[in-house]
Amino acid sequence: MQITINPEDQITIDDDFASEIETGLLAQDAFISPKFLYDPLGSHLFTAITLLPEYYPTNTERNIFTQYQGQIANAIGIGGTLIDLGAGNCQKAESFFDSLKPSSYFAIDFSVEFIQDAIKKLKGKYPQILMQYIGMDFSKQLTLPDTIPSAKRVFFYPGSSIGNFLSHEALKLLREIKSQTNGGGLLLGIDLMKDDSVLMAAYDDPLKVTAAFNLNILRSVNSHLASNFKVDQFCHKVKINHAENRVELYLEALEDLIVSWPGNSRSFKKGDMIHTENSHKYTIESIKQLLKNAGFETTQIWTDPKDFFAVIYAQ
């Protein structure tokens, strides 16, 4: 893994994802890491998903941020460095700039192309804040470069993206975050367990935007692996796994087919599925215990009236 800095305040981390994708495709139960959902088109499609009335997490979290902005700011304090994990279009972090008044802001995302324009706009609006953006796959390891100030780091991980990780993976990431807070903490958005009908509407919306988002991962894979996936040979599938308290996304083959790439191939029978994402749901007690196991000693929690979602500041 190599870290370089270019003149546009960008830190890039170069990695070869082809072997990782190949390993998943050749597994007995084929899978693709959800990080490959977020190529430039996928990132825009996800932004569209957040505008859907059926997709409750974004609006619910935003309402919590708005209603409890003062309390959250008091809990965190002003100044320091705000580190935005999975920053996307950076709008969620921007909503805290006036109340938290960070001296530095660092946006980290898998898709650098998607965040670079957002950072350019933000730098014009907030010239007093030092800004950089980082291309990083922190699902493997979160290691911050030396250019990020060490004093009082507040990590911002909204949208319940921690739910994409298995329990041991989430614990590993939270421990890595805790070890690098340096007197700061973690502001975390977390999705809570709820009725199946609400979940199915959110992850299989009538306009099929989520289906397009999921199917686009095949084009993302083609770009990394030089494979020949055809989007129209698969369809979007959603399962609710009650045993694991999670929503699972799949792509189901609509016909018998063979996908090939340089040096290898994979046969799919009609009905075979590729797993693309988990979205774990938590209870207040289960997420508090996970944070405690990661080394966070205190938590302050804000929720919506329906207890659909929680925002937590952990130290």
Describe, in short, the structure shown:
By secondary structure, the chain is of the alpha/beta class. It has helices spanning 18-26, 40-50, 56-67, 69-76, 91-94, 97-100, 112-125, 167-178, 196-203, 209-225, 284-293; strands at residues 2-5, 10-14, 81-85, 104-109, 130-135, 153-157, 185-191, 234-241, 246-253, 257-261, 264-268, 273-280, 299-303, 309-314.
Question: Would you spell out the secondary-structure blueprint of this structure?
Answer:
Blueprint: E1 2-5, E2 10-14, H1 18-26, H2 40-50, H3 56-67, H4 69-76, E3 81-85, H5 91-94, H6 97-100, E4 104-109, H7 112-125, E5 130-135, E6 153-157, H8 167-178, E7 185-191, H9 196-203, H10 209-225, E8 234-241, E9 246-253, E10 257-261, E11 264-268, E12 273-280, H11 284-293, E13 299-303, E14 309-314
Parallel strand pairs: 2-5, 3-4, 3-6, 4-5, 6-7
Antiparallel strand pairs: 1-2, 7-14, 8-9, 9-12, 10-11, 13-14
Helix pairs in contact: 2-10
Describe the fold and architecture.
The chain contains 11 helices and 14 strands. It has a domain at 47-194 and 282-314: Rossmann fold. It has helices spanning 18-26, 40-50, 56-67, 69-76, 91-94, 97-100, 112-125, 167-178, 196-203, 209-225, 284-293, and strands at residues 2-5, 10-14, 81-85, 104-109, 130-135, 153-157, 185-191, 234-241, 246-253, 257-261, 264-268, 273-280, 299-303, 309-314. Mean pLDDT is 93; it is low at 1-7 and 11-15. The protein is of the alpha/beta class.
